[in-house]
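Blinded run. Sample ID left blank on purpose so nobody reads anything into the name before looking at the predicted structure. Input follows.
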Amino acid sequence: MGSTGTAGAGPETDGERRNGPDAAGVVVLGACAAWPLITAAARNGRPEGMLLAVLAVAAGYAAGRIGGALLPVAAPCAGALAGVGLTVAVPHLAPGPQITAPLGHLGATAAMLALSAGAACCAAWAVSARTVRFALRLLAVGIAVTAAVLGSAAGCFAAAGVLLCSLAAGRVRRRGPGIAFLAVTAAGMAGLTWAVAGGAVPRGFAASLEGRLTAHRVGLWRDALAMVRHHAGLGVGPGRFGELSTTAVRSPLSDGKPHSAPLQLAAEQGVVGVVLLALAFGWLLYALWRSPRATPVVLTAGAALTAVAAVAAVGNALSFTAVSVGAGLLAGLATARPFADDAARCSAPTRRTPPRGDHRPPRGDRALPGAG
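Blinded prediction complete.
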């Protein structure tokens, strides 16, 4: 696909592009909401957290589709500013200096700042004026600086990475390979988390990761993997990891979560839960691939969502409703078709060429009856 999206596609093609991802999203999100209810009924679990996350993604996606259609530049810009403001204003998202802060706040901060940077870069690609585009990219730089000021190295790295990916996306003509690369990157991060939990990485590398991630977090991952081995079908039940994990019980600061989205779903909802998580992320990438927006916008949003997936693989970012809403919002903004594009297409003049064989000779050259 070219970087201009589907500007020359007809109405039937546009309808197919819209209906396919939307139908897939309904099925995937419906399954993500139904399966926790099933496992909760079987294991006496608490599915409210998962249901809230699904609702947050769906609500954010719907709001993004509406905002992106009405205000393709202002809506992502407002979303970027709102994300930064929320990160700075809400103390539970910003990493504080106290050492007693629960695990996961650093991950939520990094995820929110990555989404904010992605929204700013999407707005930059949606505007045609170079001055405004440069200003919006400066906003993305400011988001990375804000992360550094807050003390979130992961947030600074994520925001800067999204900005660099957005700049590189301007030189990409086909979005398919880029989307595939993002999918492989997210899968690699999830696989690395699983390998660390199972002790399948070299000792030196494992020791280095354990020093950065803390031994407590790696212990939570190992407890989650042990639960998967014993309860691979239905899991231990949504919301029950904290009461069954020995590492979580021994720690007074634990919030009852393994701080890894793939391992948490595998432990609490079984293998099906991990498959549904992969399908949900795959649906977002599929919607971006079929998006009518320009390729730089699509790949920028995909890079930000992949950064969130990477943070969620080693942290507790998806436990924060603001992160789930932000992810859905950014995906909706990047998959919406602006009404201005439809209006421009409808108002464009069309040239009508007569069918072949229907060319008549000039009036003066017609043969007269009886001539000759």
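Unblinding after everyone has recorded impressions. DSSP finds 15 helices and no strands in the chain.
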